[in-house]
Amino acid sequence: MTDNDRNQLIDASRDTAAAPVAAEWEPEILAFVCSGCAYTAVDAVGDAALQYPANIRMIQVPCAGRVEPMFVLKALQRGVDGVMVIGCSPGSCHHDNYAARRRLSLTRSLLEHVGVEPARISVSWLSATDSLKFARLATEAVEAIKALGPATMLVRERAERVNADSSDSSKQRNGDA
Amino acid sequence: MIKPKVGVFVCHCGSAIGDALDIPALMDYARTLPNVVVVQDDVRTCTSAGLQHLMATITAQNLNRVVVASCTPRTHAGMFQDACREAGLNPYLFEFVNLREQCALVHVGDVPGATKKAQDLLRMAVARARHAQPLLPLAAQIEPAALVIGAGVSGMTAALGLANRGYQVKLVEKEATLGGLLRHASHLYPTNEPADAFIQQRADAIKAHQNVDLFTSARLLSVTGSVGRYEVSIAQGDQESQFTVGVIVIATGAQDLVPDDGLFSYDGEQVITQSQLEQLMQDDAWMGKLSRRSIVMIQCAGARNETRPYCSRICCMVATKNAIALKKADPQTQVYVLYRDMVCLGTKYEKLYRQAREQGVNFVQYDPASPPDVRAGKVLVDDKLLGAQLIIHADLVVLSTPLIGQDDAASLAEALKVPVDEYGFFRETHLKHRPLDLSVKGIFHCGSARWPVDAGESIGQAYGAVTRASIMLGRGQIEIPPTVSSVNVARCSACGLCEAACTYGAIAVMVVDQRRGTRAAQVDAVLCHGCGACVAGCRSHAIDLLGFGNQGVFAAINAL
């Protein structure tokens, strides 16, 4: 398949799935935040009297190294418009997140191959004092994803805000092995 | 499985959260979430009244999951977990929602947006809490003995510190005599104490101390085990000894760089290092015939360049100290210090520098772009401040070469499974939070083994390492967080990817069933730090992280 073919395919799928977008659509972004330096930086945004758009939902992880590709895929399937992974600067990681860096960049390029725009997946590294950088990254991510429109690739179910017990999550794990 | 009964506790944080979010709406929303049996708010949940209220509700409602929505887990998770524990609830059945730092403070003026985000975060936390499992802390017994590697000033201080606290210390030194780098030093700055007397005093104390076993001319053969119980094997010549220690202090120090590439025409005769100068200075006959000689010192020789970009930190003071001593021995001696930047930290060392200037030591700044040119009997240098070339007569040129890592640092680091940087210095867990701890629990370091330091700093760091080690030794056992990886043997394909992913050497593939010969990965819970790298790296999905399991994460994602 040439790049052109693929782009056409992507465009086609976007046209059909993304058609009924409400005017007030706001992107929904899931951020995996490392509990080391990165979480501290995110926490300190308010102290620094900075703001960022309220489109981002956080999940605290023990280390960026804990973020497996399935987390990202599952979020995209769930209809999330963008995923951010925020870890500590690789040199000052409390553990060793070089593997995470490789794994996440591979995930990103594989997702690009199947048609998920790279701008939807961002992987960034913060030190504990990088609040300003986080506020900027968050704002940029929201802007970039707004420009792209709602995610369509891989989406299995647009989140219905149902409070159904996530019993399918255990199946999820068993099903993919 | 017992049906989850989730309690949601929303904190107003005075008015910090209450003003920025619609708390009644948030609470009404929380009541609609599955398994939530009680929703309660407090002005400040973290006050003693708030915590009492929290604990009373846990007991009254017989809750088996608790979600607190308040400030940041970084500062308050421990407090709320303790409250859960006190109320009889396992602290790992607790979830935190960060309403203040992630909603209230950063979306000011956007009450609907912030409230919606708070609802989403709360829904995710409740979904995850439903999958939480109780975990019991693990404990490791600590053998009340320590191994100190290296008997320089740091090692001797650490050994004496631990021995004086009543712990058995095994002090292992590769050389025949004690003292490390200070054996070659003439005197210490800023006290001018003779280095040999300083070493002797400590060496005598060590030899006389009943709690210290000293092994000189010794080699470390192997170290196995983990915190609390390290099995150490050493050799002195043909004689081998084995012992068990609870903690290890690395005090292997550093070595002087002796140029072998003709740096500044180094020849060991007319061009020598500061360390060699100090050995000459201990010779009274040599010091007696200094008369009117001219000595040129060159700073940052072999340091702060492409191969070694770091500053060795102590050379400025060493050069200043030696310059003062030479001037004192014979004021007619000409001493020049050619420097890039003089870094004499603090008032004490600034005073030393001032003293050198007052005694007539000449300080000349050079630019690394045009370094001094050492010729026979003279040194040509472009004085950066003067903007002109100086031709200095030189009877002796002294190079201030940096401290470099020990040749065997990398192999020692490998034996102990701790990290070492590209220059051969041990790398601490965290520069600011835990500067004397290494990534393996129960292993500490101090002195120039971790970075070039002088005798005073070595002593300070050694006492610090003693304190860190004593915390473990004094308690007799350490509690280890149960948030570690666990392997589902039935799924494990024994591929070993996790072994490569683990930076702590905490997971390894081994035979788990002798009869069948089944191989699988096994986690050493004591070594595991719970980072989850192996979990994410496992292609069979055979590993999960207790306390941060896949089920919980997927539940949270599904709830979004």
Describe this structure as you would to a colleague:
With 177 residues, chain A is α/β, with parallel strands linked by helices. Helix content of chain A is 44%, strand content 14%. Chain A is built from six helices and four strands, in the order H-E-H-E-H-E-H-E-H-H. In chain A, helix 2 links the parallel strand 1 and strand 2 (56-61). In chain A, helix 2 packs across helix 5. Chain A is globular and about 35 Å long. With 560 residues, chain B is α/β, with parallel strands linked by helices. In chain B, 32% of the residues lie in helices and 25% in strands. In chain B, strands 8-7-6-12-23 form a five-stranded parallel β-sheet. A five-stranded parallel β-sheet of chain B has the order 14-21-15-16-17. In chain B, strands 2-1-3-4 form a four-stranded parallel β-sheet, sandwiched between helices. In chain B, helix 1 (23-31) runs parallel beside helix 5 and helix 6 (153-164) runs parallel beside helix 7. The model of chain B has no long low-confidence stretch (mean pLDDT 93). Classes of the chains: A alpha/beta (177), B alpha/beta (560). The interface between A and B is large, with 55 and 59 residues.
Annotate the secondary structure layout.
The complex is a heterodimer of chains A (177) and B (560).
Chain A: H1 3-17, E1 29-34, H2 37-47, E2 56-61, H3 69-77, E3 82-88, H4 98-113, E4 121-126, H5 131-148, H6 168-175
Parallel strand pairs in A: 1-2, 1-3, 3-4
Helix pairs in contact in A: 2-5
Chain B: E1 6-11, H1 23-31, E2 36-42, H2 48-61, E3 65-70, H3 73-86, E4 94-98, H4 99-104, H5 111-130, E5 138-141, E6 145-149, H6 153-164, E7 168-172, H7 195-208, E8 212-215, E9 218-226, E10 229-236, E11 239-245, E12 247-250, E13 254-256, E14 271-273, H8 274-281, H9 284-288, E15 294-298, H10 315-329, E16 334-339, H11 346-358, E17 362-365, E18 373-375, E19 378-383, E20 388-393, E21 396-399, E22 403-405, H12 409-416, E23 443-445, H13 455-475, E24 477-480, E25 485-487, H14 497-501, E26 507-513, E27 518-523, H15 533-537, E28 543-545, H16 550-559
Helix pairs in contact in B: 1-5, 2-3, 5-16, 6-7, 6-13, 8-10, 10-11
